[in-house]
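Below sits our specimen:

——
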Amino acid sequence: MKKIYLFFLIIMASTLVKAQEIDKAAVRLALEHQLATYPASTLQDIYKAFYQEHFGPEHMIADTAAARDYLNYELAHCDDQAITLYYEPIGVNGDYVRVYLNAVKDEVITPEQLLWAFLDSAKPARHTSLDWATKWETIVEVIDEIRPDLGDKEERELLRQASQQNQAVHHSQAYNAAYHPHYRIIHRDIFEQQLKPAIVTNKFR
C-alpha cells in the first residue's frame, strides 16, 4: 500500500513540475517581438515586460486617490510619447495588456474607464504557481540563445538579485529616451470586458 501511495505522490509531483514549466518557444516569440518592435530595449526592459505579466499592476497602486492623481498628471504631460498604439499584450501568454494613454488622449476611452480597469486589475492575486526567480532564469536562458550580448555581467547579476526578491524595475534610460512610454497594465480579461469594446467602437468613428 505504501509503495502505491509513494508512486502516486511521484506522479503528482512530476505533473506539478510540468505545469510550472515556462514554454521556451513562447518566451522566444515574445522576446523576438519586443526586440523587433522596440530595438532600444535593454535587458532591464525585458525584465520589466515579463515581470509585469507575472505580477500585474498591484505593486504600482498605493490608493485610489493617488492612482487618479498620477494618471491625471501623466495625461497632462505625455505629449512626447513616441508609441502610437492604443494597446498591446505583454509577456509570454499576454495575460496582461499595456493600454497606452494615447487611447485617452484620442478620446477613445475615458480617464475613468482606464483608471477603474487599472484598479480592478490589481485586486486579485493572479500569481502563477511558478516563482518569479525561476521564471526569470528560464527567460535568461532563452535570451542567451538569441541575444547573448544583451546585458553585461553587472546588469545580469543585479536583475538576478531583483528576481529573487520579486523586485520591480523601471524602464531603462535608453527605452525612455526612444519611446517615452505612458501606459497602464490591465489584466486581459478586464481589458476584454471593460476597454476593448470602447476602443473597437470609437477608434474608427
